[in-house]
Amino acid sequence: MAEIKLAESKVQELKEVCKKFNYDKGELINVLHAAQGIFGYLPAEVQEVVADQLNVNIAHVYGVVTFYSFFTMTPKGKHPISICMGTACYVRGAEKVLDEFKRLLDVKVGETTPDGKFSVSSLRCVGACGLAPVVTVGEKVYGRVAPEDVKDILAEYK
Q1: Which of 1, 94, 112, 132 sits 20 to 30 Å CA-CA off 88?
Q2: Of 44, 67, 90, at which residue does a domain stop?
Q3: Mind listing the pLDDT tens digit for each residue in 65-97?
Q4: Which residues define the annotated binding site for [2Fe-2S] cluster?
């Protein structure tokens, strides 16, 4: 895997975040959350900066990043799409909705479209079970989504 060259301005921003948290290793999750906000994802190079700044083992940082599903080591699309697969959504057809997103975008779960516009993921529960099945695109929530609605949802972001 090729090494990623991080923008120096973003590295400085990340170092400021570490400073704001007093380089406290107990703040690792908060620092990683901020880092993902800065870079959009957490490649090895970002994890190395965090490990160095907080004086923690890189393996520990990697363990935290891979343990929590919120963190991602691959870039997300400009419009990240998440399909809820919690019980209520699943029994009301979320799998068919997910299949339609995968078909129309020609990606698998966890992948980003070649143009970088969309990424598709599934998650366990959005907490809007009364609207099942639920899809989020960025911060926007779509309820009672049927496979035939997917084309119209995507059209909003084209």
Answers
A1: 112
A2: 67
A3: 999 878 989 888 999 999 999 999 999 999 999
A4: 84, 89, 125, 129
